[in-house]
Structures
1.
Amino acid sequence: MTAHPDRSILAARNKSLKSVFMRWEFLLLGLFLAINIMNAVISPYYLNAGNLFTAINSFLVKGFIAMPMAYLLVLGDIDLSVGSTVALSATLLGVSYNAGVPMGLAILIALLCGTMCGLLNGLILTRFTELAPMIVTLGTMTLYRGISEMILGSQSTGSFHNVSWFYQIYYARLGPVPYLFFFFCLLALAFGFVLHKTIFGRQLFAIGSNRLTAKYSGVPVQRHRLICYTLMGLVCGMSGVFYSSWMGTVRFDIATGYELEAISVAVLGGISTSGGKGTFPGAIISIFIIGLLGYGLGLINVNSQTILMIIGLILIAVVMAPNLKTRRKPGIKTS
Amino acid sequence: DLSGQTYAIITKSAGNPYNEREASGFEEVIKAAGANVIVKHPAQITAEAQITLINELVAQKVTGIAVAGNDFDALETALKAAMAAGIKVVSLDSAVNPASRLTHINQAGVVEVAQALVDAAYDLMGGEGEWAILSATATASNQNAWIAAMQELLKDEKYAKLNLVEIAYGDDIYQTSVDETQALLQNYPNLKLINAPTTVGIAAASKVITDNELQGKVIVTGLGLPSEMAEFMGQGSVACPYMFLWNPIDVGRTAAYALLEMVNGELTGALGESFTAANGVTYIVTEAGDKGTEIIIGPPFEFNADNIEDWKTVY
Amino acid sequence: MSEILLELKGITKTFPGVKALDKVHFQLRRGEIHAIMGENGAGKSTFIKVITGVHMPDEGEIILNGKKVVFRSPLAAQREGIAAIYQNVTSYPDLSVTENIFIGHEKVERGIIQWKKMHKAAEELLRPLNVDFQPAALMGTLSVAQQQIVEIAKALSMNAQIIIMDEPTAALTNSESEELYRITERLRDEGKSIIIISHRLEDMYCLASRVTVFRDANYIGTYQVSEITPPELIKAMVGREINDLFPKPKAKIGNEVFRVESLGRTGYFKDISLSIKQREIVGLTGLVGSGRTEVVQTIFGVEPYDTGTVYLDGKAVEIHSPQDAMKLGIGLLTEDRQNQGLILDWGIGRNVTLPALAKYARGKITKDPIENMAAKALCEQMGVKAQSVFDKASSLSGGNQQKVVVAKALTSELKLLIMDEPTKGVDVGAKAAIYEVISDLIMKGMSILIISSEMPEILGMCDRIYVMHDGRLMGELDREEATQERILELAMLKKTALAVEG
Amino acid sequence: MQINRRRVKLTRDRVFSSRELSLLAILILIVAGIQLRNSTFLSSRSINDMLKNYSTTITLALGMMSVLLIGGIDISVSATLAFSGMSASLLMRDGVYSSTLVMFLVSTAIGTLCGLLVGLVISRGKVLPIIATLGFANIFRGATYIISDSRWVSAYQFDSAFKRFAQTRTLTFGLMNNLVFIALVCYLVFFVVMRWTRFGRRIYAVGSNPEAASISGININRVKLAVYTMAGSFAGLIGAMYTSLYASAQSDMGMGMEMDAIASCVLGGVSLSGGQGGVPGVLLGAMTMTVISKALPLIGISQFWQKAIKGIIILIAIIINVLAQRAIHRNAMRARERQI
Ligand SMILES: Nc1ncnc2c1ncn2[C@@H]1O[C@H](COP(=O)(O)OP(=O)(O)OP(=O)(O)O)[C@@H](O)[C@H]1O
Ligand SMILES: Nc1ncnc2c1ncn2[C@@H]1O[C@H](COP(=O)(O)OP(=O)(O)OP(=O)(O)O)[C@@H](O)[C@H]1O
Ligand SMILES: [Mg+2]
Ligand SMILES: [Mg+2]
């Protein structure tokens, strides 16, 4: 039974080379290379693998958060409580370690704490779907940070570096490359794969593009949101552990501003805050673009405020440039 | 010839005049010695931001680093790595732990500062009454050290009638400090004195007192920059009769002298060493409360109605 | 003053990859009602948007009142007295009905908006349209049909010379359509010129004096309505003849598959009991706003129910979410394709496969080529007019979007398919295709529940018909006893009448 | 033609929607609770202090509201505030002018320019608001550090009339504090503009359905530009209010205020997706935030607990509001059920 035998539709895309290379992540890759070249030119100290990875490692700690943040943004959600969650997880790790809990268990406690924070965000938002994620997570951002402050007050908690294997989590290297970097890459691959190649990922895009349609199409919208918020919490817990291993000591005010940094890199990566759009590789490349740009400028001792200004300018310029030329949205694709 | 050498100072944060003055003293001495200077202010008041800066300096193979720590312990790994790379490291103003530094440049001994502040309270309150402390952030290590020392001193018989009712934290944010001051006034109607050992806090507290025309009823004292406090000091009915500070420019200068000596090989930061700097002052390395060593610049200086006009344009 | 008010000559409009209009001509006389007809995607809506300045044509000219004009923006067209009701409702859900009507030409005195006057004027505009909502109500709380009525009022409020209506009756029931006819005729008698687009032949025959037909972006011809018979018109539109519009299959009706008993949702509907047998096509009809959509949404698990039980194959089942319903083999084709049926930003292929991703995946991993082939097959079956399965759903014409929504429903193995207004805005040819699909599904053993406001469709396709009014089931009619009059009688029964019946 | 049970009674013309009423109830509860703990809270001096100190945040919420209404967001406002307040203060320090009025005008003008820039990038450059304003937040803040050379403009460097302005009641001849009066005027003007002018209604229209707005001939870009410019003007005005209030201009002033402004709006019923919310709601939201911030130090809770408690109160307030809304809806549905 074919009603319109005369009409045939193409099922394969003939990808022109141009369209492939005009994709956002290739533009970002170009930018990434440009920044590396620029850095190498402006500073003779840039191309030193050991130092480079020291710098990379330090922004990876927050870079992890960009991964689940990308998921949430794709969903059309957002989480502003991430910095506070990192702080609270690290606080609990520190407090329990200093109360005599073995470090392994303390790590578990931190991860659990992060997960519970994320779960709470998710539960509130999925039970009260009328609420905007921004305001709820703004509330929990204050709450989690507040709990951490309640526990630590003006004190710091630390001496984690007494446990040498814990120190190694952040500092151990294979040659010049920290193991943390390998872990980051593995996790990024996993996150990217799940987002772009699995049913779950596709459904996230569906929810972000049109929540009602997704619901009517049998996508478990609220369950997926809950999962993503919880996942976000877990990754924040992880980040808290890395932070503790990095610093060896924790205060309640650590990791402030992580939320905006994670959001910026995801958005620079082409992931729209209005949901349903963006690619994961773009977000990952952007972590390195912003991180290395800052490092390069720091090497020639541009002051921190000016670096922030330059990053702000680049953020705007990069997103605006393609719009000015073609007067259309940048080549953000959903696949 | 020092022209190939580079010295760096990392302050606690940007946008704070105190830190600017500290850096300018450092810069002045290093430049005079013919070496290069890097001044770095972290983007946030956190150890994390300072670590990034330290890593950048290590990569640039600088000769010496002076740092005002945002955290006592957290900079340890980064600073140890710097020292392992042959860089001389001293802390100034706000110490880092002894393992992370060769010595610490202390603007004034902790106990001396605490003593001055407690005595001021005793003097201004006439020996009895309620008073409160308005500090910076709850995590600021030097403020916490002074407060702890003050609490220790208060155990003395002499101060028995001084009733410290609250320690509030204004987070070194002007608006928060104002709120906290107003809450203190509201919660403690008999409050006689607010002691704010921080530039933002003392200015905010003085502002609130002046706005509410409580000069003389509630007295402000503490540690502050003369330029910020000139408005509230001087002749007539003022919020703050006197306060203390050292010269932050001198703190920066001394850190620079110490680093230059260390690079010369004249100084290691060990207990008992001493050196005479280009300004003719002799500095002695003494034992610090944290089991490391430190160089104390001198007692805090008192600013009052008589000298404030001279100082307000200096720093 | 010439008799021709508006003339378009040689209009061509190309979208990336699609020629939507190819050298199209059109003449509108003063004081006439002129219909434009054509298949889905023939370019009717695009043509309208060229007239109203939403799109700039690539070629061709527009002559208004004998003068050549160029509309660079919708505002420019409005200033020349052209008002339009677009196919996809373009309203502001957060604003009041009054504001929706007067947006852009508010009544302002000394910079201050005169709300009282505007509400009054809105009420006056709405009164002849027989609405039951107040001008101060928020647009978002109205049903699609009610919003459509507001759009009509909006066009009226502009006091335009030319009023264009793109499928105004798609969301209306017969009686409401008749109301619209009356209004339209009154406007014509007042000297306005009207362009109306519709897929309903009866609209055209009732109203229009002339009809222009487009097919595949081309101008086919303009005819006097009195001189063209329906088969001729269909042939002009579709390019071939359609013999049997309602191919009702003679399927053997089996046992009861699905039943609900005294289903109720507080404030929405009450005491709904209905049952559906295997291979049966059951209709659910009633006036707009009678609560049909809410009933099926509840059955599908989108909204919770407060009372009642749902039985599938005789067993009581719990449905709390669309996933539950789909697992049980119940599918729903929603009436609001833009907001609930499609992801407009996505390609057609992805839209089609969304409800049944697992079916085309290997494990949890999606396989694009498999999905695309499946989507292609389904789209071709439905006759979706597109270049490839990667075309964005938003680029499709209204009717073609509807076909994609139907294709979506065909991806899953279902026992019961609920179709809420499945042929809304669909051309004759595609309607036939959808009916054929329905027949096909029935022959495969499925059961179908159709909600429709189109009487011929209900009468032509259904074995049994339930009629709703005001959130209540008013009665049940067999195919044999069902007539238009009987249905209307039930649909308009007053509560009091019901009370007497007990 | 038909008698239908659905009678939509949601009226826009009421000053308060039910959502705002329930927020009002919550606010009253909070105030009552605090008053019980500390009886000085409702003293006139305490209220004056509170309104004076937070007149800045309260006013900032208005600019934020207009941005949120069109479905945008502006997290650069606090940086704009710092930049304009600082530049205007530097000019006053350097003796370019000493008049309070000129200071306010200059600061507002600089803020307007900043907002215009943001608006241009968003409306012409088609950059997502969050990223554009995130970028501009960095840029304006950085610029503030640079122009001030990281120094403060200290109290003694300001004109004394300007410093007094924030503490006195000259504008209303003794009725209320000047800054509070400015905030009040802003609210009144905004209330009228949003409700009774074309411009205000266009903002709602664009936020409610941008596509429809462009089809009905509203120049969306112009509305966007206007709204971001307006947010900038407000930030500029507040820059002057802020420096007058504290008699001090610092490069890090106002940091984080944008989040309070957003929270005020959302608490007050402004939807982040645009189109919904009104001035009375924002006022209530801003007052709630103000009361929470002001009162926590007053009720004798350890400072280390305050943040946690603030977080809890915000969460509880928004959740109770949702529950109240649900209850109202449920009752409406029950009432309708009886008519079926
Ligand atoms: N914005 C657009 N971008 C790309 N293609 C478009 C766009 N708008 C319409 N088209 C294409 O132009 C053609 C004509 O569409 P149009 O909406 O005018 O059809 P129509 O005759 O109104 O159909 P229907 O009866 O289904 O509403 C279709 O092939 C459609 O896919
Ligand atoms: N929250 C609400 N407040 C008031 N009325 C509401 C609300 N939600 C829905 N309605 C009304 O419910 C009706 C929608 O009913 P429903 O869509 O089920 O009817 P229908 O018979 O399917 O009509 P249609 O042909 O319009 O689809 C509309 O009249 C709408 O005004
Ligand atoms: Mg159309
Ligand atoms: Mg319906």
2.
Amino acid sequence: MFAKVLVANRGEIAVRINQTLRTMGITPVAVYSEPDAGAPHVNTAEQSVALPGSTAEDTYLNIARLVQAARDSGADAIHPGYGFLSENPAFARACQDAGMSFIGPTPESMAALGDKLRSKDIAIAAGVPTVPSAPACQPGDRAAAEFAERWGFPLMVKAAAGGGGRGMRLVNRRQDLDGDMELASREAQAAFGDGRVFLERYIANPRHVEMQVLADAHGHTIHLGERECSVQRRHQKIIEETPSPALTPELRERMGDAAVALARQAGYVNAGTVEFLLDPRSGDFYFLEMNARLQVEHPVTEAVLGLDMVEWQLRIASGEPLTLRQDDIAPRGHAVECRIYAEDPYRDFVPSTGTLLSWRPSSGPGLRLDSGVVEGQQVSIYYDPMLAKLIAWASSRELSLRRMEVALSQFVALGVITNIPLLRAVMQHAQFRSGEYDTGFLEWNPAVTRPAISDETRTMARALAAWASEQQSVGMDSRFRGNDGKESVNPWQSAGQRRLP
Amino acid sequence: MFAKVLVANRGEIAVRINQTLRTMGITPVAVYSEPDAGAPHVNTAEQSVALPGSTAEDTYLNIARLVQAARDSGADAIHPGYGFLSENPAFARACQDAGMSFIGPTPESMAALGDKLRSKDIAIAAGVPTVPSAPACQPGDRAAAEFAERWGFPLMVKAAAGGGGRGMRLVNRRQDLDGDMELASREAQAAFGDGRVFLERYIANPRHVEMQVLADAHGHTIHLGERECSVQRRHQKIIEETPSPALTPELRERMGDAAVALARQAGYVNAGTVEFLLDPRSGDFYFLEMNARLQVEHPVTEAVLGLDMVEWQLRIASGEPLTLRQDDIAPRGHAVECRIYAEDPYRDFVPSTGTLLSWRPSSGPGLRLDSGVVEGQQVSIYYDPMLAKLIAWASSRELSLRRMEVALSQFVALGVITNIPLLRAVMQHAQFRSGEYDTGFLEWNPAVTRPAISDETRTMARALAAWASEQQSVGMDSRFRGNDGKESVNPWQSAGQRRLP
Amino acid sequence: MTTNHGEMREMYPHVGEPYRYRTDAAEGSLTFQIDGGVAEGSHTAITLDIESHESGEGVCRDVSGRTHHFAWAWVGPELHLWLDGALHVFQRAESRRRGRAAGAESSEDVLAPMPGAVLEVLVAEGDRVERNQTVVLMESMKMELVITASRSGVVHRVAVEAGQQVDRGMRLLELAPEGDGGD
Amino acid sequence: MTTNHGEMREMYPHVGEPYRYRTDAAEGSLTFQIDGGVAEGSHTAITLDIESHESGEGVCRDVSGRTHHFAWAWVGPELHLWLDGALHVFQRAESRRRGRAAGAESSEDVLAPMPGAVLEVLVAEGDRVERNQTVVLMESMKMELVITASRSGVVHRVAVEAGQQVDRGMRLLELAPEGDGGD
């Protein structure tokens, strides 16, 4: 096992990795940019290296500096977390070249899976369903007509060399097919110098369901069940749960087998996640991509399986065999995760910055908090606005959603605007509770992105605001952290006299 | 199921019960004494009733007021928590008389188990081993000599009518037996007007191992495995773990069967705990007492079994059948709990009071905090000094102890003195780590109750104290919660210039 | 019995008209009279027991015994009030900037809505802009922000350039005055 | 390069002699010279990078890169310093009560070591008490506290009675002066 691991990340995931490293008796080394001096991911480490600069490019994305920091601190491995350089094959290779282990897959399989076309080829080779498509074809081709015949409308036209939405069109009606293919082809020619287009089936309102995979360096690969991640804003997940309400045991087994087959085909080692689009009507699923790293939402898997994913990442990276068999994987109860963002859910999710004046997370049975911030900390403009993840576990889906809702209602956060009220509204939402939701959930339910405050609550808020404002006027809000040599006064103040029953 | 439950308690256990009530959609009603106005067990409830007064007698021990509060608030059940009135049959009966469910056993079985002699009779009737004893006898009796012959020395002489240590003596040598019995008998006569004494085997340095039992009102009783509670100060547990390092599967089964037999014999319904003394040398175990309530340390059982004890208490009290079978009880991994007290571990555990100026618990994978306090709260003289419980879970005992140790080292608490450094020293202690410890652990290892601070740490502490003292002098410790109409300044201060690598 | 009164204004999540309040303390409780706000001329009253804490947290109980957890902090001139999981932002009515009509959205300046970096300034001094026209692109927390003009007018001054870091509320552009500033 | 100096005293967990410090800020780091304390005449030095936070938390790093989490708060005249999970209490040397020799345990008064209720006063005015003799029983947080005389002497005054609530540091008994107060 490693003796010292540099965590090339920040925020909640770096804190979380530090926790497992220390639990395993491994020394964590933190790196930090200037705005992160003194942040929790530094003070939960045992050693730290400053990265000059503020932007991600100068610091957490700076391969040369990170490798140098690892070398200087005597680390024998690097954990990339998620985001930043976690899926950058050049970083993985630079770590290896510097004689350190990279905690993740090989640069080769990472590179293959990072390329959309190559990863689709891997899936096809592994017999994993991908979204049906017709090979590169011309407007008016027999192949195009046959594909349209087989799959119906709407259809997607995509540029073979495409990306970023250019050369891509949604075709709603048969009579538009040739015209739209022409248009897409011209766009693709203009954008990429390559006018080839192909047709792909359009999956309307899919669910996003992913399978967690673990593979060791000795050829043993298993899956750890699924996560349902269909509640998204701007194509970013905000709520994840396991088990998925959409999966039958039979479908779970088929998706799990597909994920394992794909990982094997890619020569994958360590923890990875195979993302699928699931058509909830037909039960068909299609390979979307494989994330060659630890996933943000891994804690829900940990909660129902009773294991530590980072512990397994470290064991596998150090060459230990994966001693878990597929039969050992027996989920217990249900877990849900909410991502707490510094953003305004009522103003198009615009990020919010400021000083966290209060940060008092709920705690108790079935709750876990992975937090990257502490009270008093500055939430800066420089990085992702995710502050923390709250995970609730209970014996059933109904109870875990309610446990989460209660915990959100008790989570005091002041100083920046957070998305907590939105998360809570989703937990309370009848459609979400029913389990019958898809990636269009927020779109179909715009009411949850509008404040819903009862007249009674509003009156109470106004009264309390008036009261708090008066408190300040009469100086009751004075700092209780006294340094005047006197004992602190009793910090509880009662409004008016004590009530008698 | 109940609609509204009054929680007749305070502190962490009332908060914890509130959490499960709200998770189950049941309205929790809090009661609170004057010093507890605004405490977390009030603000995590949905309804509350003030109890005039400060002392426990006037408030949380006041049966008439509590029943009245439950009636007035429309509660249909009362949860007593632990301590206070939780094992008071008169309270259970008063709840029933007022037409409300008491969440616990019947007053009858509670009364029987609360009496030491009757509970020993129940154990014997159930075939559960008790500490061997000779019936009431006189100095010089043949029965006394035979008992001494059989079990050897040391022996205990106890008053038949005894209690509180009076009429009790440890007899170390054969030649002291008659004289010590005389002395004990005279003491007992003086104290209780009843000079009968008996002999009991002395179990030296036992381990304290208890079995959790669940029984429904339909005759189904199971056990949920054991908890090892041998680390105690002043006969009060401070650290608990499960599984016990002392139990083999065979011993676990025998103790579990004994606990179930005893609960059945007592007509026990709801959650209860059968405490045993275990002689780690012989593997013999002896019934000590049965706690007819939720136990402080129940979270370690929840952690390894993946269930919610309070949820089951409520289901059973509302008449639902216990759907768990004994075969369903399959512990996963290992869990340890530390009780965080406001007390000075280096000054004979003297309680500490004051304002909690900082209270920043560690969090993350495998950690659970059940807390009864928040930052800024007054820790008063009126009640038990336990502030919170920290629970760590991991896949193995070694990892869960280390996870706990790391979490304790990260737990910021300022304003009152806590026992956190002692708990941490136990987690690091070789004998505790080995699992070979008994109830004499702190006695045999007085070093853990003395501060152990390296010269290096001491120098760093002195330097930081000097620094913090200077910070105050130059006014850098100003309140950051500004109300002057200006934006808060960046709360991060750097000492000197920024370092370059 | 003591009485206080004053005027507050809601800023978030709803921006509302100012409301007047009167507080009467009696019998251990506080009775609040709230006038105006949602609909001018409306009047509501609520009676609360409040227990509070110097660290900025409290609990209040209405006459039915229902209990609510709250917390508060001042963020500059704004009072941020957290109540049972939701954020409400208020200002004292008198602390609003003088010379600016309450509720008016118009301004001479285009301000940065949050801290970040300027990606691109799409207009130059002297340009005519329409209301809601994109004038500046900013980047903040990995997001692109589109800054639009709050009214039609002529750009009087460009206060920033591409690449520049700006704080929240910092002026990006100044529009030439046009009439009395009404929209 | 700026230099500060002063004198502090450890109060917990070890009560030590006062120590003097000198702080030199240079090159982004602070170098502390610590004199006295553990053994009079001892001298140690440590160089730290310190990042701190107005809410009373910080992180420091020594020259080897080892990183430590700390927090602090003032509890009356005491500086409570939390460092990697352990509490250390300090006072400024100048803030100690004048007229009382540093480190001396003797006093004219028997004080309550913590808040609680007086259960029983075991001595009366005029009684002769020996050092470590139990003079008062108190109850606090469900615990019985045994209060002993810190020196031999005669009880000059009994300041409390059974059943009375007392605060920390409140005088329970006063002993008659005896010589110069030395032990």
